[in-house]
Amino acid sequence: MIEQVKKYIEEVEQAGFKKLDEVEAFRIKFIGKKGIIPALFGDFKNVVKEDRKEMGILLNDLKNGVQKKITELKDQLENLQADSSEYVDLFMPVNKEAGSRHPLSIVRNEIIDIFSRIGFNVAEGPEIEDDWHNFTALNFPEEHPARDMQDTFFIEKNPDVALRTHTSSVQVRVMENEKPPIRSIFPGRVFRNEAISARAHCIFHQVEGLYIDKNVSFADLKQTLMYFAKEMFGEETGIRLRPSYFPFTEPSAEMDISCHICGGKGCNICKYSGWVEILGCGMVDPNVLKSSNIDAEEYTGFAFGMGIERITMLKYQIKDLRLFFENDLKFLRQFESAI
Ligand code: DAH
């Protein structure tokens, strides 16, 4: 019997479990009503006199050992559960699959790269904007229907707490804080209260460009945009400018590129016109310069704004804008090689 008890003591010392249920089974096995320890104490009366002392000590050691082990294991497992709801297997092999860059990040970086080669730096502004930077300083008159061109998300009843509807707001912030010459692009997220479809989303990305200096002309704008179109879509790409209206530029234009899919012959991407629209642009309205305390007699400038989703869709022939936000790995992995 002494040998048997010594074996139990050893078993208890070595016990280790991964689940609380197993600890409970261990408790029942040793100190449950019909467990090993009550049985051993029951048999104590049958132990021969000479062995009683040793047996008594061993039985007490066993009992204390079991109790100590249970407390120890419970503490360990409960702490582990508090750290994470799942059991963490530290010996599991590592997941060797690398992530890939999102197509919108790839294209944003490419746009930054193209413009930085001709001396544009990058600036950013806040996504939560006030009326001044998003509208008023950009020459959107109060109550003017142009404000409805972009359905705004107001966060509070206060019109000064809204999500910016375009990255043009960053133009104002940069002009307020820097002196010309300014040659910058502003990439960022923008928000509009629009129904989500294959062609529209309430969250999307834009890159705004601004160039202010003495004697900046429409010819400079045209050359800059032509350079961009060729770098982004290929040397053979042509551009055309159509007159348009934006409150912050005068004159304003929209720019099309010759369809890089059919080379201008006509296909369903360009709706058989041979041209696809990619951005809005124009000469910065003198009122906008004045709002930011830049002398409109001394300086002129151009600005442009494009949607990163639009450029990416054209470049990779993606037909549904919602794919950018679904995070389906099968979709995202296709762009890995382009990093
Ligand atoms: N902010 C315009 C938009 O969101 C895009 C744009 C048009 C930006 C013309 C400009 C510009 O800087 O000159 O639709």
Descriptive notes:
Helix content is 40%, strand content 19%. The strands form 2 sheets. A 7-stranded mixed beta sheet has the order 1-4-5-9-8-7-6, with helices on both faces. It is elongated, with a radius of gyration of 36 Å. The chain starts with a helix and ends in a 7-residue tail after the last helix. It folds into 2 domains: 84 residues; 236 residues, BirA Bifunctional Protein, domain 2, CATH 3.30.930. By secondary structure, the chain is an alpha+beta fold. It contains 12 helices and 9 strands. Helix 1 packs parallel to helix 4, helix 2 runs antiparallel to helix 4 and helix 5 crosses helix 10. The longest helix has 35 residues. 3,4-dihydroxyphenylalanine binds next to strand 8 and strand 9.
Main features:
12 helices; 339 residues; two-stranded antiparallel ribbon; elongated; binds 3,4-dihydroxyphenylalanine; BirA Bifunctional Protein, domain 2; alpha+beta; 40% helix; 9 strands; 2 domains
| H/E element order | HHHHHEEHEHEEHEEEHEHHH
Strand content is: 15-25%
CATH A-level architecture of the largest domain: 2-Layer Sandwich
State the CATH superfamily name of the largest domain.
Bira Bifunctional Protein, Domain 2
Bound molecules: 3,4-dihydroxyphenylalanine
End-to-end Cα distance: 72 Å
Q: In order across it, which strands form the biggest sheet?
A: 1-4-5-9-8-7-6
Count of DSSP strands: 9
Principal-axes shape call? elongated
Low-pLDDT runs = none
Layout of helices and strands:
Blueprint: H1 2-14, H2 20-31, H3 36-43, H4 49-83, H5 103-116, E1 121-122, E2 128-129, H6 131-134, E3 162-163, H7 168-177, E4 182-191, E5 203-213, H8 218-233, E6 239-246, E7 249-258, E8 275-284, H9 286-291, E9 300-307, H10 308-316, H11 323-326, H12 329-332
Helix pairs in contact: 1-4, 2-4, 5-10
The structure holds 3,4-dihydroxyphenylalanine (DAH).
